[in-house]
Every structure is written in structure tokens, then in C-alpha cells.
Amino acid sequence: MSEQKTAPPPAIDVQEPAPAYERESPVTSTVQGSGPAPAREMPANLVQLDGPRRSLLKKALPCKCADGQLTIKQVTEDYTPQKLQALVSIKYSGINPCDLNFFHVGLNSFVTGFEFAGIVEAVGSESALQVGDAVLGISPVGFPQKSPACTHQDKAIVESNLTFKLPHGLALKDAGGLALTTQTAADAIFNVLGFAFPAAGVTGTGGTDKPILIWGGASSVGIAAIQLAKAAGFNPIFTTASVKNHAALQLLGATHCFDYKSPDVTGDIRAAAKSLGVSLTFGFDTVGSGLHGPNADSETSTPTLLRRSLSKGAEEISVKLVCTQPVAHDPAFGFCTCYRPVGSIGAMGHPQDPEFPTRVRKVMEYVLGSAERAPKHPNITVVKGGEAGLQEIQRVAYGGASLEKVVIEHPI
């Protein structure tokens, strides 16, 4: 197929502050702050609403202690798919904490947004996708991050190996926030922890009738993890969440739910495992709370709480732990991610098993083989417009979403 050239509409972008003469205007709303704050305390947004083609832009000064800023601005660049790529008209883009939090790993000056559902408008010469295909997927992560690949914009360049055809019966709205969280959960369970998923053709340690603790079950990654763990045969599946969310998580596959606010939640979990006659040695922290920022405290962090919830007396060699954040104080925790580039080096520059990308792809192809197998989110919030999207990105990054997945409806 021949390459086609199509101009993109609105986007969500991440950029260093431009000189005054380069900035778009008028500015309609500004909230600013300073310091090397973590995502939950990261201030700053600058909303810009003029122009026919708008984008949500994250702006950050290039120094470590820079202010972080979000803004909406026009996008003028034309995007052209190459070889295995495709140009997708974004219909829904999922909001995730990394939309804002990547500021803290040095990423700025790019359109933000890392997952999508939409319709293929143009394809590269070697793409297996076809114009008109309904697809979902994620963006690759790189240093520097490339704006054409990001998804809080009305058109984006997507990679074939990170894109999947929408199964019949799965709505675009439901698919827009599915890929990133599902791939993160798949990477945690089947790559970092090394468990098998026979139905997907993924080998490893058998998980059937093995207990697992998923800390933060009401997070979007936690919701996906519970469903993947159930599909892979884990039992019992322990999880933590607010009491109000327990019933919903049990419907998704959790067998035992615990109130994370309980003063002895770790003891409650250990007691439950003991009463069931199982040794709890596997855990997935989907939130990584308390690890970064001025209020960080390793003793009260969620990885530490998860570690304390494991069965006493278990041999250390049997312990397998993973977190969505690096856990410097406990080397037993592996680090999971939504994106595994092909090869032996991960997206963040660390070594990885070169089979990891293939294993995740197999899991995703299996669960997206039908709408019935695709992980479901019980509560999807749809927002419209750039300003609403900007506000929701901050709310999600600051921990304001529980048992809720927020997606932006396009056009922005």
C-alpha cells in the first residue's frame, strides 16, 4: 500500500515554555506553582482555547526544579505514516497518571496521551492495517518523546506492534482507556513475575490455584490485573480498596477484598491467607504510593504494606513482587511498564528479557480476540473538550480517580 499524507487536527502536547513572542494567545486561565513536586502536588496549568485546531500541551522548564505546566494550543504539523505505521483518527483517548507524571522522569516538549481508540485514515507501505479499521492501542515511549505518536490529539501516528483491531462488540468508548492499563498488568503478571497464561500461548510458572495480592484493586491497572489474574487461574485473588468498591471488584474476579484504610490491613490479609490454608508470596502493587516527593516514606509506602501482608515464614526465594513504580528500598520488587520496545533494552533504558514484548503481545491478542475476553472497566467517565481534559489529567495524576477510567472524546 502506498503512503498517504494527511494533516492532523487537535493534540495534547508536552513542551518547554516558549519565549513570549512564540507563545500562542490569548491565555484564558493560569494556575502556577513551583518546586520538584511529585505528580500529586505538581502545580500549574495554562489553558489556551483559541484556534480551530487545539492541543493539550504539557510544558516544563528543562531544569530539575522547574514548574510543570499544562496548556492547550494549536497544532500545525502534518503527520505522515511510514512503513509499518498508520495514521489514526482518534475517537477516544485514555487519561493516565503518566500523562502528567512523565514530567518527573525528564520528558517534556511533547503532545501527551498514551492510549487510544480510533479509525485508521492512512497507512504506511508495509502496514497490516487497512484504512477504515477500528483499532485501539498505546503510544511508544522514548527520550525525547515524539509528539506525532501521542494521543490527546485528534490524529496520531500509531505503530503496528502496539495497535490492535477492535473486537466485534467492543465500543470505541470502552476501548479508549483499555490498552495501556491492560498491557501494564500483563507485563507485571506474565513478564516480571514470570507466570504462564496457557490460553494465550505464554509459558512460565503456573498460576492456577495460586494466591496473589493485588494492592490497589480499584486503580485502572488494578482492575485489569484482577481480570487477567482470574483468566490465568489464580485463586484466591486478594485485593485492597475502599469498602465502597469491594462489591464491584468481586464481580470482576477478586475473591477477598480488604479496606486499605484499616489500621491493621496487613494483619487482616495475613490472617485471611492463613485461614484459607495458603501461603501468600506473590504481590502486585498497582499504585506505588509513598515512594516519591517531599512526603515520601518507605515505611508507610504501599510496597512496604504489601510486603508486610505476605505470609510469615515464607521462604524469600518464593517471594515474587512487582510495582508500577521503581522500589529502591526493596530489591525484591520488579518494575512493570505498559511499553516494552523490541530488543533487550527497555523503554527506560534498563535491560529486559527480549521475549517480554512478544509475551505481552500474545496476551493482548488473546484478550482482544473477543469482546467477552477483553478486560472491562465498571465506570468510564467521558469528558469533552480540551479544558475539561486538562483538568481531568491533573485530577487523575493527583489520585482523584478511584474505580473510574476517564477518557477524552474527540475532536478536542
Q: How do you describe this structure in short?
A:
With about 400 residues, the chain is of the alpha/beta class. Helices cover about 20% and strands about 25% of the residues.
CATH class of the largest domain: Alpha Beta
Per CATH, the architecture of the largest domain is: Alpha-Beta Complex
Provide the structure class: alpha/beta
Q: Report the mean per-residue pLDDT as an integer.
A: 85
Query: What is the fold named in CATH at topology level of the largest domain?
Result: Quinone Oxidoreductase, Chain A, domain 1
| C-alpha geometry | globular
Strand content: 15-25%
Number of domains: 2
Helix and strand sequence: EEEEEEHEEEEEHHEHEHEHEHEEHEHE
Low-confidence stretches: 1-54, 57-66
Largest sheet: 7 strands, mixed
Distance between the termini: 30 Å
Find the count of extended strands (DSSP E, 2+ residues).
19
Q: Work out the helicity level.
A: 10-25%
Number of helices: 9
Written description of the protein model:
The chain is 21% helix and 23% strand. The protein is an alpha/beta fold. It has two domains: 199 residues, Quinone Oxidoreductase, Chain A, domain 1; 186 residues, 3-Layer(aba) Sandwich (Rossmann fold). Strands 6, 8, 9, 10, 11, 18 and 19 form a seven-stranded mixed beta sheet that branches. It is globular, with a radius of gyration of 21 Å. The N terminus is likely disordered. Pfam families: ADH_N (PF08240), ADH_zinc_N (PF00107).
